[in-house]
């Protein structure tokens, strides 16, 4: 049985994430609330088994894209580590691809730290962004 986590953010937005188990959903909700003042609430609910999983998967991708975009606006950039730890997104490069498909100008830079190489993604000025929405 699948579970949804409805998260309400202080900026007025609400995002739904999906988990395969109640424990995973509860853990995600707890991490979300501990991550800082951005999240106001995280409510776990059970999904009707008749609901089409493909549509929930697409919704999760969109929700992750929105969170990654907000993170980059707030912090200037994002790495895979930040994506995993702060958002719970394990496929950052795929979500960056999706955001670029939406028209966002995102640059990537390869960083070397402690002998490891990884990408750092930055949101550049975009005509499709409202300048008042960037913090």
Task: Describe, in plain words, how this protein is organized in 3D.
The structure is a single chain. By secondary structure, this protein is α+β, with helices and mostly antiparallel strands. It folds into 2 domains: 51 residues; 83 residues, Winged helix-like DNA-binding domain superfamily/Winged helix DNA-binding domain (Arc Repressor Mutant, subunit A), CATH 1.10.10. The chain has 4 helices and 6 strands. A hairpin with a 2-residue loop joins β5 and β6. α2 packs across α4. The protein is globular and about 40 Å long. It starts with a strand and ends in a 12-residue tail after the last strand.
Estimate percent helicity: 40-55%
At the fold tier of CATH, the topology name of the largest domain is Arc Repressor Mutant, subunit A
Tell me, rounded to a whole number, the average pLDDT. 78
Number of strands: 6
Beta-strand percent range: 25-35%
| Cα separation of the termini | 38 Å
- Helix-and-strand structural type: alpha+beta
Number of helices: 4
Which H/E pattern describes the elements? EEHEHEHHEE
CATH superfamily of the largest domain: Winged helix-like DNA-binding domain superfamily/Winged helix DNA-binding domain
Q: Could you describe the largest sheet, including whether it forms a barrel?
A: 3 strands, antiparallel
Please state how the strands of the largest beta sheet are arranged side by side. 2-1-3
**Alpha carbon gyration radius:** 16 Å
| Unreliably modeled segments | 127-135
Task: Write down the overall geometry.
Answer: globular
What is the level 1 CATH name of the largest domain?
Answer: Mainly Alpha
Counted up, domains total 2
This entry's quaternary arrangement is single chain
CATH second-level architecture of the largest domain: Orthogonal Bundle
């Amino acid at each position: 049985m699948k579970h949804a986590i409805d998260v309400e953010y202080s900026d007025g937005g609400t995002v739904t994430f999906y988990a395969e188990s109640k424990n995973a959903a509860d853990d995600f909700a707890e991490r979300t609330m501990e991550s800082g003042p951005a999240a106001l609430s995280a409510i776990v609910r059970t999904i009707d088994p008749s609901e089409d999983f493909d549509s929930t998967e697409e919704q999760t991708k969109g929700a992750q894209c929105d969170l990654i975009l907000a993170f980059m606006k707030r912090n200037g950039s994002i790495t895979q580590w930040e994506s995993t730890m702060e958002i719970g997104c394990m496929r950052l490069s795929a979500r960056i691809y999706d955001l670029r498909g939406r028209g966002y100008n995102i640059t990537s830079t390869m960083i070397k730290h402690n002998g490891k190489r990884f990408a750092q993604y930055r949101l550049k000025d975009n005509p499709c962004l409202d300048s008042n929405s960037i913090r």
